[in-house]
Amino acid sequence: MNPFDITKAVDYSDTELYNNWVDFPKDGFNNIIRPTLDMPMIILGSKGSGKTHIMKHFSFKMQQLRNKEIYKGIITDGYIGIYLRCSGLNGYRFSDRNESPDTWEAIFSYYLDLWLTQLLLDSVVEIFNSNNELKKYENRIVMETMAIFNSNEKLENYNFKLLKEYINHQQRKIDYAINNIALSSGSIKDKIEILANPGQLIFEVPLIITKVINEFSKIKILFLLDEFENFSESQQKYFNTLIRERQDPVCFKIGARRYGIKTKMTFSGGEEIKVGSEYELFDLDDIFRKNLTDYKEFLKEICIKRIENSNNKLSNDIIKHFDTADYNKDMQVIRVKSQHIEKFKNKLKKYKVENFDKITANIRCQEDPLIERVNIYLIYKGFKKKENLFELSKNLKRDTKKYLQGESIEDYDSVLDKYKQDLIDALYRENSLKITSYCGFDNLVRISNGIPRHFLMIMKHIFRWNNFYENNSYKDTIKTDIQLLAIKDTVLWFLEDANTRNSLYNFKDCIERLCNYLRELRYSDLPPECSISTIELESSNLKLDVKEIIDFLEQYSYLIKIESGRRDKNSNQRNDIFQVNGLISCLWELAIARRGIVKISESNLEIILTNSGEELKRFSKSELIKYNIPFKHSNELPSLF
């Protein structure tokens, strides 16, 4: 069995969620989410951020699993967690079909109130069933709850069973009216009775429960609404109104994907809810990305827990269980192949460089191919400056000898300080080797970019490929080839989300064109920056269609926005900084460290993202020639027409 087969919390049963729970190091999610906090909280996270798993951890079902005596557990926890997946309401039903928006808003708000009230009562009944001492409160709670409804109907007995049946009947009447709307004449509002004011059930039923049960006087009723993005704008507007008008003892935690908040407007005088004063905004991705050490420990513990729950155990420490790049072994292969030397020599020959054979011989360093690659870089630099390359190569030959003897050479130190990993990856690429600098536990954590599911998907494919090749995932270390196969499978899965979106543009093509451009820059003769995978954009000047593309790529985490940005030297405005997602960087052989930043103008960005034909080819040629022999600018190139 693959312990990483399940990567989505919704595919777990409650018991499985409980058994696979791993808390975040140090503060823990309880201190981050703060379930008893009065102020509502909106929790944002990318697809796969763990948002659902975390929110369900605070649900009543999890409270039951954590506490042998649920009544005492509720007192200790200080809250009752009522969890709802918004997708379960099928919110799309509450729109159009020749009914006014006002009608649907009224029906939906009542329906949601009924649904949440039933979920709350289900939990209360479980608590009452666990403690007979609570039975004395049942009659009064039911009577006061029934009094909320603007109806003369009476219950035969004031117990939870009949109360739940009554509320469920109100809900089913709405379901029936909606399901048969196409077969009915007249308006749906003539077939539905709304028996309570908006929000009345949400706020008054919890108040009744905590007022009647003395021991619950300090208990919070925590409504956890997950997948909030499945609500329409008007449906979110209603819940925003509840957030603004929140009353004790009710708390709200709203979970949504990064693109999931469609409006901040309320029905309260047409005003918006304000972050800081009316709700807190919590970004899961941001927390994970800013706390890389804790995030790494978090993923490590998830791995250990999953493996232990599958009744297996690793033969050594999990970090040591992952092979990393074997630099010395690979350099021996590169030394034999020396394809980078042949390509360098052919390039000098193509541009009729005098003494190209002697120059090539002078820059050789059999002891260390990396020094050869530094020498090649310095020759290209000399070419651009129009230096005497033969004389330069003789100096490099002398410097190579000194450097190997342990002497510090300023040019070498400078190039290696900035471009060492770039040159190593270039050597692998030029000699047709797979770039393995992405491998190892630490790097797999890094390329997941604060999205746990990305890491779990890599692990899932690692175990799958190991099984295919009949490797023992628990006893054998995980080879770099297996890791690279798993990364590739995960990237292809990740890119599928960019395929089907309602837009004029194929977002998958957009990210591919951007990465193609950055890859060409990174492996150019003289790259404009080191460790290329990060771009700077003048976002305030972007055209609407280009902004739509960038917003999508950021919201779906294909691009990771760097919070601080960077101030433009000329305009003094703060530009946005984005780094290509680590997974995608691996497939396009970009850097996963963030160092150099490539600034792309608004006009150039538009060409890259929205063109795929001749205009893109012309742009690429004119840009890349600046960084490759013969290092000409676009105005020095002959016209294509």
Summarize this structure as a short list of keywords or feature phrases.
five-stranded parallel sheet, alpha/beta, 26 helices, four-stranded mixed sheet, 641 residues, disordered C terminus
**C-alpha end-to-end distance:** 62 Å
In this structure, how is the largest beta sheet organized?
5 strands, parallel
Low-confidence stretches: 637-641
Rg from Cα: 31 Å
The outline comes out as elongated
The share of residues in helices is 40-55%
Count, helices? 26
Q: Using DSSP, what is the number of strands?
A: 9
Question: Can you characterise this structure?
Answer:
This protein is 50% helix and 9% strand. The chain has helices at 14-19, 28-33, 51-57, 60-66, 70-77, 101-130, 138-146, 160-179, 200-212, 233-244, 284-290, 292-309, 327-337, 339-350, 356-362, 369-384, 389-404, 410-430, 441-447, 452-468, 480-496, 507-522, 544-555, 582-587, 602-610, 614-624; strands at 41-45, 79-85, 220-226, 250-257, 280-283, 534-537, 559-567, 574-580, 597-600. The chain has a five-stranded parallel sheet, with helices on both faces. Strands 7-8-6-9 form a four-stranded mixed sheet. α6 (101-130) packs across α10 (233-244) and α16 (369-384) crosses α18 (410-430). It is elongated and about 105 Å long. It starts with 13 loop residues before the first helix and ends in a 17-residue tail after the last helix.
